[in-house]
Specification:
The protein is of the alpha/beta class and 243 residues long. The chain has seven helices and 13 strands. The longest helix is centred in the last third of the chain and has 24 residues, at 219-242. It starts with a strand and ends with a helix.
């Protein structure tokens, strides 16, 4: 997989997440065979596995990602985030097989996550997104032709603006796919800058060290986000049952 890189979207103020994040990769994805890059600003993380890109100052989330992509030579990238922590063994052989399928099939994008987008199933594993649909360019565990991702990014936009406005820009592009099940086991640790206590407690139970410097979400907001996640899971289940 010489032409593939894993990009972890981050910035220097999220430094407290890098150590537990790396711990989960060392535990659950230690056989990964392609480089992993952190999109840091000035800071360099002393890491066994992650490479700090030190892109300098940024205008926005998208500007950070554009500068990071411009610093690497690989033509395909798997994009993830600094708050998506692994929770079980990643099947690296299976991930590489999916990447090879995407590359050989000239996919512009393959999300390793069950999508809420409209579309149709190709087989028991792969789902083709409609050209005009919501969440077509969702960034979570998304495998991209780097050139397509760069064309969709606007340096003025934050991540949420990219997923909204970039989604409309993506209507011009075909061949966007997702898997019909989540193939990378993870938890989303951070909600609006603070710890999700359910994720934090799970990571602690798994034996990972978590800094207490960052605040933790209260009960009411945790409950609300849990209900939202359950609703999302139900909708994705129904979409893939119907289509």
């Amino acid at each position: 997989m010489n032409n593939v890189a894993l990009i972890i979207s981050t910035y220097d103020d999220s430094e407290d997440l890098w150590m537990p994040l790396e711990q989960t990769y060392l535990e659950y994805w230690k056989d990964i065979r392609f480089p992993i890059f952190l999109t840091t600003n000035q800071k360099v993380f002393n890491s066994q596995l992650f490479n700090s890109l030190t892109i300098g100052n940024e205008l926005s989330w998208s500007d950070n990602l554009i500068k990071s992509l411009d610093k690497i030579k690989q033509e395909y990238v798997l994009l993830t985030f600094d708050d998506l922590f692994l929770t079980a063994k990643v099947d690296n052989q299976f991930i590489e097989k999916l990447m090879q399928q995407a590359i050989q099939g000239e996919f512009n994008y393959l999300q390793f996550y069950r999508s809420i987008s409209k579309g149709r199933k190709l087989d028991n594993l792969i789902f083709k997104k409609s050209n005009i649909t919501r969440y077509k360019n969702s960034a979570v565990w998304s495998f991209w032709k780097k050139d397509i991702l760069l064309e969709l990014l606007n340096k003025e936009e934050n991540a949420w603006e990219f997923e909204r406005n970039g989604n409309i820009r993506s209507y011009e592009y075909k061949d966007f796919y997702s898997t019909r099940r989540n193939v990378i086991p993870f938890v989303n640790g951070i909600i609006k800058g603070v710890w999700n206590p359910l994720a934090k407690n799970k990571l602690k139970r798994l034996g990972f060290s978590i800094s207490e410097a960052r605040s933790t979400l209260g009960f009411f907001h945790t409950f609300r986000y849990k209900m939202r996640d359950l609703q999302f899971d139900f909708l994705t289940y129904m979409i893939h049952k119907i289509y």
